[in-house]
Amino acid sequence: MKIKQLHLQNIRSYADQTVDFPEGTILIHGENGAGKTSLLMGVFGGLFLSEIRNVGTNNFALDEFVRRGEDKGVVELTFEVAGTEYTVEWEIYTTSTPNDATLTSASLSSPVSGIRDVRSEISRILGMDEEDFASSVYVKQGEIDRLIEASDRAEMIDGLLGLDEIDEYIERMKMARRGAGRVQTRNSDSADERRSELNEDFDRDEEDFEEAIAAKDEEIRDVEGKIDDVEDYLDELRDARAEVEADIDSYEEVAEKKAEKEEQIEETTEERNRKQRQIEECEERIEELNDEIDELEDEIEELADSVDYDASTADAAADALDTVQDELQDASVEANDRENALEQAQDELDDLEQKLTDAKDELSELRDERDDIAAEIGGRQTDLDEAEDELNDAIDDRDELAVEFLPGPESTADVDASTIEDVEARIDHLEDERNDIETTLAQRETTLDERQSDLEEEREQSQQSEQELKERQSDLDALQADIEDAEERVDEVVDEFESRFSSLESRATEHDIDLAADELETAANERLPDLRADVSEEYNEIDNRIAALEQQREQRNADLDELRELEEESKCPRCKQPVDETHIEDEVAEIESELDEITRKLEAARSERESLEQTRDEIDALRDDVLDLIEFRNDEVKAAKENLDELRERESELEEEIADLEEELESHEDTIDGLEAEIDDLEDEIDGLQTDRDEVVEEIETGETLANRFERVEQKREQVEDIKSEIEDLEDDRETVESEIEDVEERIEELEADIDQQKETVAEREGSLEEAAEHVADLEETKETVAEINDLYEQIDDRESERANEQQDIEHYRETIENLNEQLATLRDERDDLTERLGDTDIEELEEKLEEVEDKIEEREQTRDELQERVQTLRDERAELRNELSNLRDLKEKIDTYERKTEWAREVHDELDETISVYETVKSELREEYLAYINEYTNDIFQEIYRNSSYQRVVISETYDERSNSYDYDIQLLRDDGMTEDPSNASGGERAIVNLALRAGIYKLIAELEGGDRGRLPPFILDEPTTFLDEGHVDQLEEMLDRIRDWDVPQVIVVSHDETLIHGADHACRVEIDETTNTSRVTMNTAGAD
User: Fold this and answer.
1) Side-chain-side CA neighbours of residue 97 (13 Å)
2) Does 939 show up as a binding residue in the annotation?
3) C-alpha separations of 1042 from 196, 455, 877, 1050, 1084 in Å
4) By C-alpha distance, which of 78, 67, 61, 71 is closest to 38?
5) Is-contact 727 349, C-beta < 8 A?
6) Cα(4)–Cα(26) distance, integer angstroms
7) Taking the alpha carbons of 425, 428, 434, 440 in that order, is the dihedral positive or negative?
8) Are 1018 and 170 in contact (CB under 8 A)?
9) CA dihedral sign, ordered 1042, 1043, 1047, 1052
10) Are 387 and 715 a contacting pair, CB within 8 Å?
11) 1015 annotated as ligand-binding
């Protein structure tokens, strides 16, 4: 892998910088604070984005990564892996805009976007995440003890060498094994639970269920046959009901038609009567119309007598109306003409009067204007006197200040208008001086702000460290209290375990069993079950013996009963021959003796069986108690000890963290003291600069005041000239106004004569208009009368037309009445026919018959419903039996499934045990092999650069930690006397050499594990490796770089402020910072070039 190019925009001290990285060894050098580490952080941020905050000792917010004062920063990194080039662009915002990243390459089908996706893809390409990168190829500034004192050293080194993958596999296998164990236990317990459920819930087997189901089937078939019989009878009843309902429907249909006919007869009769009434109403209306026509003719005759026109007929009245309208129109035209003439004369009079008013107003305004001009001339003369006085005062003020401000003039007599050039030159000089002071002041204030910001950040970090220290100390106090409680808990459970074990041990001794604390599982799983089996075997033998003795006793009792029966009869029950009584008595005595002996043996056997049963119960109880004690040891005792171990381990970690925080707090305090001293110096210098700046500003203000006074003198001089010119203009205006006043007075006299003549004309035209208006009024009255006569003639026409319409309606109504009479005859004939069709049918009898049939149907339906309910009940019972049978079969199937799963889980558990063992063996062998290489490569570098005689070599070995049940890497230094020593006892420089050698050794091993593929090998990065090294060892560092170069590493990047390392580098990358703008600049050259 190679870093090709880095572009930083607004990143920390970089404003806009692009750096091309060549192959070989690159020394990045420059003063402290120039931006060297920021350059590396840019590389690291380009690879791992936001995770840069969490790697190593980095501790900052992402917005602090952006240049101060900017709201966006960009990191663009181009790198090459195995010949393929990739470019990642990372955008960081200090605003609410979310950060973003994009990865592009010709080998990718499409760009990868998003912080998470880009980081994941880069980790895949590199084959390592940010922690592995930082631990293997990136030796950060000041991290001299990261590997030689790291508490997670084993995890770190195993991760770099790929051994942690085996741990992951082992852990996965253990998780799988635990899962298999849980599956085995769970399925075994489930099988036992299902067997118990089978015994408790089911009192019959599958054959009993099937017989019960068959019986239910037979009973269901019988009831269903009865239901079919009832349904057949119901069908017959429904047919009979349908016939009766058809007869009733037929009767009701005819009766309904008859009722409809009677209703139609009634409606037709009513319609005929209504038509007759309408005829009568029409005849009455005709009589009313005749009376109205007579009244209208009388009114026309009366109106015709009042006018001078013929209105005896409708046509004559219409002609008279036309004649009147023509005369009225002519009269109206004449009146309008006269009115227009009057209005014209009046308009001319109004116009003359308005002109007279305007002329008088104009005369008044001109006189006012003449007075105003005279007053203004007087005022401006006063202004002229004042302006000349102000001009003289301004010249005096200007000359006095010029003598004071300028070094040239000795008195006011030496000052004139041209002196302004000297003033402006003096001001320019002072402006330059002020700019110089402000530039210097801005630089110092910027530096002060940065130092104050640094001080604030340092104080915040100090407070944070102090707070973290208090929290860790508080956590430690609480943890120590928890440790005391945990120790007490361990003592309690251990005491309880020992007490219970002592009790079990004495009970086991009673059964000749030696019980050991470390062999409880053997005792519970082998020895006690074997002992119980032996006791059970003896118990079975005794039980068989008791059964045999009881059988013997029964047989002897039977023989004894037979002998006693024989003794009573004195005959043999078989052959009926006489038997000797003495013989019988002897036989009875012998059997009774045998019975006594059998009873004695039976009692002894029963006593022995009871003893064995008690022993067996005691063994079962003892085994249960042993299993309980095992569980108590595995759960309580083990948990208590593990908890105590974890607490003690946490206590050690907290003590280390507290020590680190105390050291970090002391470092912060030293830095704060230095920053405070620097800030005090800067503040003093700034105060002096501000004083100088204020003095120069005051002189500049005086010069600007003087320049303003020169300008004021010119303004006052111009003001005097302007006032003189204005007075001359006003004199001219006054003469013009006097001439205009004379013209207006002449025009007023002419207008007054014209107005008198026009008033006479208006009076004449008003009289002529009154005569015409009276003639028009007379004609309008005559027109109204003639129009009313015409309207009355029209009303007569309307009445005659309405009378004719009424007569036509009477004829129509009479024809309708004749048609209605014919309809009534037809309807009465149809009603009589329907009456005959109804005949003697008794509807009530039909309804009673229908009710009887429906009652029978209801009874049979009730019977059918009862039978159907019985069938449903039987079906439900059969379904319940089938369900129980199914449940029984399912339960048996589940038991079989659980048993098969239990066996499968046991086999998987055993296979996983074997796999874990193989993984652990492989890991141990690989670690041993890798350790040999790390020792070899580390000591090659160590012996190359270490020049003291205190230590001979670095010894790296594998150790086992019993407390944590894990392996770790132990690092020791071999002394001249053959003894080993912990690196923590070495000096800071020696520890730095060990760390560098160890990092280089691991890096070489990683390179070889890559199979010689230098295209995938990351650059080896050293950040300030000379820290803690003396001058001699710094020189040896060049030899180490030469040795690493021989490993065919594509790039080695060294960051250092020590420029002596340039001789061992191929390229020199110089980083400088502009103090004025706080901007870093990078220059890349071949090592040794100017």
Assistant:
1) 11
2) no
3) 79, 41, 95, 13, 20
4) 67
5) no
6) 12
7) negative
8) no
9) negative
10) no
11) no
Cα gap 79→539, rounded to integer Å: 84
- Superfamily classification of domain 2-175+946-1086: P-loop containing nucleotide triphosphate hydrolases (3.40.50.300)
Residues with Cβ within 8 Å of residue 450, at least 6 apart in sequence: 1078
Q: What 3-state class would DSSP assign to 25?
A: strand
Give me the DSSP letters along 221-250: HHHHHHHHHHHHHHHHHHHHHHHHHHHHHH
Query: What angle do the packed helices 420-509 and 638-838 form, to 10 degrees?
Result: 90
**Cβ 1061 vs Cβ 1044: under 8 Å:** no
For 75, the token pair is 């990191």
Whole-angstrom distance, CA of residue 1007 vs CA of residue 1012: 6
pLDDT in tens, 706-749: 788 888 888 888 888 888 888 888 888 878 887 888 787 787 77
Say if residue 145 is exposed, middle or buried (CB neighbours under 10 Å; 0-12, 13-18, 19+).
Answer: middle
570 marked as part of a ligand binding site: no
Residue range 469-511+523-700, CATH number:
1.10.287.510
CB burial of 740-760 (b: ≥16 within 10 Å; e: otherwise) equals eeeebeeeeeebeeebeebee
| Res 1031: pLDDT | 64
CA gap 1021, 262 in Å, rounded: 122
- The answer to whether 446 is annotated as binding is no
CB-based burial label for 710 (10 Å; 0-12, 13-18, 19+): buried
The CA distance from 693 to 695, in Å, is: 6
826/468 Cα distance (integer angstroms): 120
Q: Is 469-511+523-700 the same fold as 2-175+946-1086? A: no
Q: How crowded is residue 472: how many other Cβ atoms within 10 Å of its Cβ?
A: 21
Residue type at position 978: G
C-alpha to C-alpha distances, 9 to 13, 28, 66, 75, 447, nearest whole angstrom: 10, 19, 9, 7, 22
Which portions of the chain are predicted below pLDDT 70? 50-63, 135-153, 160, 562-584, 839-841, 961-965, 1010-1017, 1027-1036, 1064, 1088-1090
Q: Residue 512 — left, alpha, or beta (φ > 0 → left; ψ -120 to 50 → alpha)? A: left
By residue count, the chain amounts to 1090
Q: Is 1069 annotated as a binding residue?
A: no
Please indicate if the annotation marks 35 as binding a ligand.
yes
Cβ neighbours, 10 Å, residue 930: 21
Asked whether 755 and 360 are in contact (CB, 8 A), the reply is no
Answer yes or no: is 38 a known binding residue. Answer: yes
Is 759 marked as a binding-site residue?
Answer: no
Bridge partners (DSSP) of residue 521 are none
| Chain position carrying tokens 């915002």 | 93
Following DSSP, what letter does each residue of 525-547 receive, concatenated?
IIIHHHHHHHHHHHHHHHHHHHH
Q: Is 572 annotated among the ligand-binding residues?
A: yes
Alpha-carbon distance values, 446 to 438, 453, 683, 920 (Å): 12, 10, 11, 61
What residues contact 846, with CB distance under 8 A and at least 6 apart?
244, 247, 248, 251
* Residue 16 pLDDT: 93
Per DSSP, helices labelled H in 113-205 are: 115-126, 130-136, 153-161, 163-201
Q: Tell me if 33 is assigned to a ligand binding site.
A: yes
State percent of the chain over pLDDT 90: 5
pLDDT at 575: 47
Structure confidence at residue 38 (pLDDT): 83
Segments making up each domain of the chain, as ranges: 2-175+946-1086, 469-511+523-700
Residue 1025: what pLDDT?
Answer: 75
Task: Confirm whether residue 12 is marked as ligand binding.
Answer: yes
What would the two tokens of residue 480 be? Answer: 């120590």
